[in-house]
Amino acid sequence: MSLSLACRCGTRFEVEETYAGQEVTCPQCQSPVKAPAAAPGSIRTCDFAIVSLVLALVGAFTVVGTLAAILLGIVSIIRIQRNRQRLAGLGYAVSGIVFGILFTGLTVLAITTGEVFGIGERVRQRQLAGKVEDDEDLAVVKNGVSGFRITRPSHDWVVAKKQLKDELEWEDSALVLVHRRRDVTVEIYVVGYLRKGAEEYADDLLERYQVEGHKNAESHFEKVSDVKLRQKTILTKKDGAQRVEMVLDMRLLGQPFRSMVRVVKSKEGQIFLISGRAHARVFKQVEDELRQLMDSFEPLDQE
């Protein structure tokens, strides 16, 4: 809307409603003309300010919702400052920004560490809803020529469905296990029949991590950097299968991660790769479970 003004010199002109109650200059004689103040009751609360606060509270721990709340809060403040005579709601906008920043920080911290007043668990369970399955039997058996059996330590470990595997871009893995409460994943790959022993394959694997990394589109690796071997152990044979374990430190998307990798070569000559990974802060809490999980692995080669 615009305001119609009349100067003493007889000139009539219009100005934006945002100038209500202020002095403006007559375009003809340059004399000051005071625009009428906004009519009582014409001030309204900025819609964006209200939406900002609602998004911050309803979208808490979703990151997308809280970031949108921060953005709308900033936009609201700008609009209110430019239209003080018509718009109110500065308190809503500031609250939306404050809560948005608070919940965004808590969510990122919860996802990173897995523990902030139980927030990480709730966020993770929400993310996994409908994308995992949990049978009563803790043992997971894959039959066939490249079959194997692995036993989950508890029902906290669940099997990723195809949707989750696709989202994580692990479609070529034979099995993906995820932890319900912590950001820990275990992938199992069937490498195939190779002449290399388990130790030789493990050494090649480490070199591919360190040298090729994300450059090799056919590798089993995501984009990683600063890969360092922390520990390598030649394990005793189990049912004739060679076993080698490596613990690696790395950075994934700039965050410190630790990975436990187990290479198993069955007595028939088939190689399996089991890779478990967690944020460095979480790894110590799940290390025993990861090792228990990998110790339970058994190749089921067909005679």
Q: From N to C, what is the helix and strand string?
A: EEEEEHHEHHEEEEHEEHEEEEHE
Secondary structure: helix percent? 25-40%
Q: How large, in whole angstroms, is the Cα Rg?
A: 31 Å
How big a fraction of the residues is strand? 25-35%
* Strand arrangement across the biggest beta sheet: 7-10-11-12-16-15-14-13
Query: Count the helices. How many?
Result: 7
Instruction: Report, as a whole number of angstroms, the end-to-end distance.
Output: 85 Å
CATH topology of the largest domain: Protein Transport Mog1p, Chain A
Note poorly predicted spans: 114-119, 214-221
CATH class of the largest domain reads Alpha Beta
- The dominant shape is rod-shaped
Structural class: alpha+beta
Account of the 3D structure:
α1 (47-58) packs antiparallel against α2 (64-82) and α3 (90-113) packs across α4 (119-128). By secondary structure, the protein is an alpha+beta fold. The strands form five sheets. It has an eight-stranded antiparallel β-sheet with strand order 7-10-11-12-16-15-14-13, with helices on both faces. Strands 8-9-17 form a three-stranded antiparallel β-sheet. A two-stranded antiparallel ribbon has the order 1-2. A hairpin with a 4-residue loop joins β15 and β16 (270-279). The chain is rod-shaped, with a radius of gyration of 31 Å. The protein has helices spanning 47-58, 64-82, 90-113, 119-128, 162-167, 198-212, 280-295, and strands spanning 2-6, 12-16, 23-25, 32-34, 44-45, 87-88, 132-133, 139-142, 146-151, 157-160, 175-179, 184-193, 224-238, 241-252, 255-265, 270-279, 298-301. It folds into three domains: 2-34, no CATH class; 44-124, no CATH class; 132-301, Mog1/PsbP, alpha/beta/alpha sandwich (Protein Transport Mog1p, Chain A), CATH 3.40.1000.10. The protein contains seven helices and 17 strands. The model is unreliable at 114-119 and 214-221 (pLDDT under 50). Helix content is 34%, strand content 34%.
